[in-house]
Amino acid sequence: MAETILEVKDLSITFFTKQGALPTVDGVSFTLNRGETLGIVGESGCGKSMTVNGILQMVPAPGRVTGGSVKLAGEELVGMREKELCRKRGSDMAIIFQEPMTSLNPLMTCGRQISETIQAHKKMSRKEADARALELIGMVGIPMPEKIFSSIPGKLSGGQRQRIVIAMALCNDPGVLICDEPTTALDVTVQAQILGLINELKEKFGSAIIFITHDLGVIRQMADKVLVMYVGQAVEYVDARELFANPLHPYTQGLMRCIPGMNSGDGDLHVIDGSVPMLYDLPKGCLFAPRCPYADERCRDQRPGLYGRGSHRVRCFRCEAMGEEDVP
Amino acid sequence: MSRPVLKVEHLKKYYPIRKGAFSREKAVVKACDDVSFELCAGETLGIVGESGCGKTTTIQSVIRLIEPTGGRILLNGQDFRAMRGPELKQARQKLKLIFQDPYSSLNPRMTVKEIIAEPLEIAGVCSNRAGRDRRVLETMEQVGLDPSYVNRYPHEFSGGQRQRIGIARAIVLRPDVVICDEPVSALDVSIQAKIINLLRQFQRELNLAYIFISHDLGVVRHIADRVLVMYLGRVVEEGESKELFANPLHPYTKALLDSVPRMDADGKPAALQGDVPSPANPPSGCLFHTRCPYAQKICAETAPELREHQMGHKCACHFVDRLPSKGE
User: Fold this and answer.
1) Contact at 8 Å (CB) between B224 and B196?
2) Contact yes or no for A114/A168 (Cβ under 8 A)
3) What is the pTM of this model?
4) For a pLDDT cut of 90, what percent of chain A falls above it?
5) What does the longest C-alpha to C-alpha distance in chain B come to?
6) Distance between CA B143 and CA B150 in Å, rounded?
7) Of B191, B218, B266, the CB nearest to A260
8) Terminal-to-terminal C-alpha distance of chain A
9) Averaged over A73-102, what is the pLDDT?
10) Nearest residue of A to residue B291 by CA position?
11) Does A103 touch chain B (CB under 8 A)?
């Protein structure tokens, strides 16, 4: 059995707003082993990004982690003091954001941004840190690292900037690397390069990766396990292979069918009826029931648990027969 | 085949720039160079390529939002570039645009009614208010917006609904050609499917011709009849959508298709190496030769012409007959 590096259990995040307490993330659980990639998919507003914010303990006000536990290498992060958290962020766990344009300081050279991050966590002289930064820039596949080292981000292309962000995320050898839509703002050709790089570096550094995306094609290429989210809840949690071969939740099935693929027919695209419910006006029963083609009385009345057998968990009454609720 | 509603011949848009020491040297950026195509009623032309390849410049030149440097544009057989004043205004009513970002393309201080009615006012049709209001309400219903929302402001709508407002504004005057510049890129997949179906429905009902720009090849394959592949301002391949996606000829098109992460197949996407060269300093000869795996000496010397290779399938490559075909 591989070593578990991150264990998230019943993580709940609530936003306290004028409209009331909004359950942005509702009881999300998963475990992540070293060298493994977990994909989180879902549409905007489903709580993907908030889940990783919860892991990093960086939930913005008026939100708060209201329950559950996040264990990084056995250490509980929920309730940890800010000072200690700061030591963890950027060293034991790091994040790559979607927008490479805004996640770099436009006035600082690329090399200094990386060496600064190294120095923040390790006792190292400026010279040593700079040397390490240069090495990292070369490692992420940028030609002429010396030139890029002393360039400001504005001089770089989008793909190069994302490589710098990756170098910065990896500079302290994090156990968990979180990628929040790292390729959404990039062209497909650059995306292919960056995805290849992340996989290559995963092998080299042995990090575990949490990969957030709305693109199921990217998930197929990257993930070992997948968490499908809908309105703050995990609706399906399964091995990537199994997900694409045998999606069980009606939402996952609908999502897969509405993507125009390379082999789809000419007819109209499949659509999921209705729209995502608002957090302040959630349905009483299953959150997907109002849009679900299979919904019956019970679905509209009661919330289903996560049912499943082995590694396949589904939040749907139709899968209840598969096994116990919330099997450990 | 019916007569083309829009015919574009050798369209060029050059931007003058200065480079060299003390900016003495004059040069041009060929943002769109020698682009030709025809569009018939009821047909969809897709334009694909990486960012900066001239997709948007091309269509902006076509509708003369920016004045083209050279070439001919025939709208319903009339020379669109020669038109001035009221004649131009009249002709532009036949050419409408749908923008990518449903947030910034709608005036936040105008109600839905004012937004949709504005083209009618400018065109001077429906001179009385009652007629205009009726037309606005009809159009709202057509695009699937509740007519009771007529006095609301854009911020009260979701992204998908805003894009419907944008579509309503584009079709209210019954144009011949609608240009869609990445209309679904900012939307979630389930909403994207709805908008694509809506666009196709209007195409059938109103016999619209579309120019559809997208970086999502799956979407283009689904919606387009013909496809132009652009690279650094030039068309490198043109063909029937089915044929082009099944049997791409140009190495760039092949690379583009290979880099899309597929949901329906395993295997890592093959990454194209390097970045797009700067358009201010384009490579000699074939623009793609710096990244092309098959490049020979001749590619750096002479630029290949766009030649018809098979019926209706054009490609600009010296070695089009000698390249390995897909799957080899």
Assistant:
1) no
2) yes
3) 0.85
4) 40
5) 68
6) 13
7) B218
8) 16
9) 87
10) A189
11) no
Which pairs with CB-CB distance under 8 Å and at least 24 residues apart come from A313-316? A313/A234, A313/A236, A313/A237, A313/A238, A314/A235, A314/A236, A314/A238, A314/A248, A314/A249, A315/A233, A315/A234, A315/A235, A315/A236, A315/A249, A315/A286, A316/A235, A316/A248, A316/A249, A316/A250, A316/A286, A316/A288
Distance of CA A56 to the CA centre of its chain: 11
Distance CA B302, CA B320 (A): 15
Amino acid at position B256, single letter: L
CA distances from B206 to B43, B133, B174, B175, B230 (A): 11, 21, 8, 9, 29
Q: Which two tokens stand for residue B324?
A: 């390995």
Neighbours of A322 (CB within 10 A): 16
User: CA B321: distance to chain centroid?
Assistant: 29
Provide φ and ψ at B203, rounded to 5°: -60, -45
Angle at B324 between CA B321 and CA B328, to 5 degrees: 150
Task: Give the DSSP letter string of A160-203.
Answer: HHHHHHHHHHHTT--SEEEEESTTTTS-HHHHHHHHHHHHHHHH
DSSP E strand boundaries for chain B: 4-19, 25-40, 44-48, 70-75, 78-79, 95-98, 177-181, 209-213, 226-231, 234-240, 307-310, 313-315
Report the candidate in B237, B252, B203, B206 with the shortest Cα–Cα distance to residue B47.
B237
- Which chain B residues touch A223 with a CB distance below 8 Å? none
Q: What is the number of other CB atoms lying within 10 angstroms of the CB of residue A20?
A: 12
Instruction: Kindly state whether B256 is in contact with chain A, defined as any CB-CB distance less than 8 angstroms.
Output: yes
B207 Cβ contact partners less than 8 Å away, ≥ 6 residues apart: B41, B42
Using the predicted structure, report yes or no on whether residue A55 has a pLDDT greater than 60.
yes
**pLDDT-flagged residues of chain B (< 70):** 1-2, 20-25, 265-269, 324-328
For A182, what's the count of Cα atoms within 13 Å in the CB-facing half-sphere? 32
Q: Which of B106, B53, B83 is nearest to B256 (CA)?
A: B53
Is A11 strand, coil or helix? strand
Which pLDDT does position A119 carry in this prediction? 92
Closest among A144, A148, A151, A146 to A131, alpha carbons compared: A146
> Residue B261 corresponds to which tokens in the numbers above?
């992460």
Place of tokens 């992204």: B159
Say how far apart CA B2 and CA A43 lie, in whole Å: 41
- In the stretch 246-285 of chain A, residues with CB closer than 8 A to chain B read 254-256, 258-264, 266, 268-272, 275
Any chain B CB within 8 A of the CB of A189? yes
Paired tokens of A267 = 């007819």
What is the rounded distance in angstroms from the CA atom of residue B224 to the CA atom of residue B242?
A: 9
Query: Which residue reads 């499949």 in tokens?
Result: A270
How confident is the model over A110-129, as a mean pLDDT?
A: 91
Residue A74 has pLDDT above 80, yes or no: yes
- pLDDT at position A201 is 87
pLDDT in tens, A287-326: 999 999 998 999 999 999 888 877 788 999 888 776 655 4
Distance of CA A28 to the CA centre of its chain: 12
Nearest to A64 by CA among A25, A101, A103: A25
Q: Give the pLDDT confidence of A1-31 residue by residue, as tens digits.
A: 578 999 999 999 999 988 889 999 999 999 9
Closest CA to A167 of A127, A131, A208, A114: A114
Q: Which of A44, A190, A221 sits opposite B261 (nearest CB)?
A: A221
CA angle A228, A231, A233 (to 5 degrees): 55
The whole-angstrom distance between residue A278's C-alpha and the CA centroid of its chain comes to 22
Q: Give the C-alpha separation, A153 to A67, whole Å.
A: 39
Q: Where are the beta strands (DSSP E) in B41-133?
A: 44-48, 70-75, 78-79, 95-98
